[in-house]
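Entry:
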Amino acid sequence: MRRLVVDCARVGDLVLLTPVLRCLALSGSLDLVGRPWARALLAGQPGIGAVETLADPNAGRWSEWWRGSPRTRLGQILAARSYDEIIAFQGEGRRLRDWLAGWAGSTPIRWITYKNDQGIRHRVEAGRLALANAGLETDGYEPVPRLAVEPAALAAAQQRLAPLGRRVVAVQAGSSLTHRWFRRRPNLKGLAPAQWAGLLGQILTAGEADAAVLHGSAPEGREVRAIIAAAAPELRPRLHDWTGKVPLAELPSVLAAHHAVLSVDTGPAHIAAAVGTPLLVVFGPTDPAVFRPVGAGPVEILLGRAPCQFCHGTPRMDACRANVCLTGLSDETIVAAWNRLHTALPPAG
């Protein structure tokens, strides 16, 4: 059985999809179509063959023409591979659905729907149910997202971190809301700079880490610089701004080399969990019952508090300009969440 899976989701959702992909790969070869980050993240993963990409899978007619007709060209390539089945998800846009129907020919397209039924809410367990509802085999389904890291890549990441100390924690303060140069909304998923600085100050002064590396895309450097500026002057040399310096393809190995990861609810948090790194993840607008990162290592939740939770996916979040669910958390509450994770940390290597 040769299958093609089409999923143009964001990074975190792709990580949560890995149990579905591994299960499908048990019955034959598996190729994937996604956005450009799908190749960076999943190319070379066990059970996954070719990873093809579309930068804008739902581009309009004129935009598609201006880009050189990438959908048309990719459709021709895929049609020549003679897949036995195409698997796609009901949430894909109309233009992408039309594109699939246009080149698939006699190849059957099986549409998968994530349904919130049987009391199952988390995306990983919902993946098993979605496969079953689509008539696909679920024997061998393992409800733990995993990303394999090559030993050489891990060794290189460890060498890169070594000058900073044996116990280096990572911080991912930004999310898709901050992954752009021009934006209208604040970092609704994140703590305030002073809150991050207070937590890192506690960790470093207590001797529970040697240094912290603050990750993110280049535009998220604004968040990182604000955190460093809010830190005590004597601690700033131990806070390292790596925004824009770690490509997505290298991020799994780099996060695997850290002592622990502190993150908002975003793609890198799911990557950290999928490579087994101990993780403290902040949840404010989003619900951990649905989006909690899952992995082989310990995962601790720092949960915000507000009457308006959980507003993700509602007009309330679109209108929000002050994420009181997180900025109202006390320093004691934030540090207590770290302490819960710290007790589960392995000794530094």
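The domain at 152-342 is CATH 3.40.50.2000 (Rossmann fold).
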